[in-house]
Amino acid sequence: MEFPDRRDLQDLLDPQPLPSFARVRYDPATETLDAPLETVRDELGRLPLDELEPGATVAVGLGSRGIHRIADIAAETVTMLDERGFEPIIIPAMGSHGGATPEGQREILAALGISEERVGAPVEATMAVEQVDEVAVGDTATPVYFSAAALEADAVLVINRIKPHTNFTGRIESGCCKMLAVGLGKQRGAQAFHSTALAEGYVPTIEALTAAIRNATPLLGGLALVENFREELGHIEAIPASELETREPELLERATAEMATLPVDDIDLLVVDELGKEISGAGMDTNVIGRYRVINAPDPDEPSIDLIYARGLTEETKGNGNGIGLADITRRRAIEQLDLQKVYANALTSGSLAKAKLPPVAPDDELALRIALPALGGYDPATARIVWIENTTDLAEFRVSETLAAALESDDNVTVLERERLRFEDGTATFEA
């Protein structure tokens, strides 16, 4: 597809006066776990490992998110299981991610530092599944699929972060239960889950499938990880299989209280340097940008962001730019990074089609801002509320326009570091003091 280049657009769009910016540090109070790997070992000891025979195989499910020290946690888990006389294997538990192919899912894990060489266990990335049950969720009969490789093991353990989801709110959101219901269902299971969840609700679908999986598989439980504002580990807890649905809601409350968010809710323009699946299932955390864009869940009231400009994709996402449809403007560089097979595999499986739409494409940053600023309506550089972030997880430092810098100076958790000027080099945005 050919997109208009600078010569096609520059005469249609007048240059816009730019506000001055400030680089700010945001540092709300939070707790960080001092010895996470020791905690992993201690917590895994709370699971019923003594019920397993020596030499038993343990399938360890790991997902596609960039969780703090996830490779170290995976390696420590494998080492502990080895020392107990078991044979651990790693199973990608990420539904359709990686283009719904074994190679793509291995590639995602490797990008997170999880490989056979790094963690000391084989990675079984087959997409094969078996139907282990069928459950009724409301008026919908739903097949329950589970990884064939995991079913061949003597025990199953999942490791995942507990956090607010990007499509819905409820007592259970992202975590070990969802990894069981969706991630280990591979593409076929993820598609069946999402089809039912869109009709009957996400939480009842997760609960029904988790219960069925617990009854049909040798499930040990989950290792639940909670990150703090700095995206560092604040809590690690092993949850036995029988307690997953009762314990996760309490951990979700903690995760919600400590999650990374912006210190301002009313924003005219949010500029996001990069999006990716390891950052969020929606590419950009919808709890930060205030947009779900799914058919059965209204967008949250806060934050309120008029326009979003997404500049590119992370390397780790390997072309899966699902979530770019949450932006209002993007640029050619982001389009060139897209692997549409991976985007479509993700979007068609989840049924969340809006996230795969392409917004208007600008050739470069300078013209993207020429598009965005007048589209705000009544644009005034002296009052425009602009926030410029690297991504929706790294929110300890970012840039704001001058009017927001002045407003944030009274916030005890925010420090204004230095004023900066936005300029362009061959159309690409740069900041200088």
From TrEMBL:
Q: Where is the DUF362 domain?
A: 73-274
Pfam families with a match to the protein in the record: DUF362
Q: Which InterPro entries match?
A: DUF362
For this entry, the protein name equals DUF362 domain-containing protein
